[in-house]
Each structure stands twice: as structure tokens, then as C-alpha cells.
Write a structure and sequence with these properties.
Number of strands: 6
Shape: globular
Helix content: under 10%
Distance between the termini: 11 Å
Number of domains: 1
Oligomer: single chain
Strand content: over 45%
């Protein structure tokens, strides 16, 4: 398992749309098979974009500082304390250890 609490770049999977913005990802990646894909779960906070931009796009790609990247989709938008949390789940390439 790899835990994260860092800023990530958020991209649309649509080639024309490209970079949506950045946000802080808080969550974890859990290795399902050695050398295989990892499953992601967590929340995006402090987005530099409108939350509905990710909700409307549905499928996104996250790019982490350590080189990991993966597909994800938004499962919920929550507004605790007036701040937006985008709950996401997905799968991707393993982080560099």
C-alpha cells in the first residue's frame, strides 16, 4: 500500500480537453497483483478547477509527483465545512518505490 497526501495534476481522458487543473490528493493505492495495476481510492481537495468540471467529465487521469499515474472517476462530491471533496476511485500504474 502507498499513501498519498500531495498535489496531483488532473487530466481529462478526452484528448482535446487535456489538463483540467491540480488538486491535493489524500488517499491510497493498494497493489492488487505484483507488478500489475494498483487500485486507487481517496479524495481530491483544494481543486484549482470547478468541481463540476471533474464530475461532468467523469473519467480523469491523475499524475502523481512520484511518477505514478492512473485513471479514476468521481464517485461523490461533498462539501464539508464549505470546502469541496471529490471522492475518487480507479486504477493505475504503480508508484516508484
Amino acid at each position: 500500500m502507498q499513501t498519498y497526501g500531495e498535489e496531483v495534476k488532473v487530466y481529462s481522458l478526452d484528448e482535446e480537453s487535456g489538463l483540467i487543473g491540480s488538486a491535493r490528493f489524500k488517499g491510497e493505492a493498494i497493489q492488487e497483483t505484483p507488478g500489475g495495476l494498483w487500485s486507487w481510492q481517496g479524495i481530491l481537495t483544494d481543486p484549482s478547477f470547478e468541481p463540476n468540471d471533474v464530475w461532468d467529465v467523469h473519467d480523469i487521469r491523475l499524475e502523481f509527483f512520484d511518477g505514478a499515474s492512473g485513471r479514476a472517476f468521481c464517485t461523490n462530491i461533498d462539501y464539508p465545512n464549505g470546502r469541496v471533496n471529490l471522492e475518487i476511485t480507479g486504477e493505475g500504474l504503480p508508484p516508484r518505490m
